[in-house]
Amino acid sequence: MAGETVSHSGYSRPRSKRWPWAVILAVVVFLSFPLLTTTVGVCNDYVDRPGECTSYPLIAAAESAPWVIGGGSIAAICVYQLVRISARRHNSGPRDPS
Question: What is the pTM of this model?
Answer without folding.
Answer: 0.63
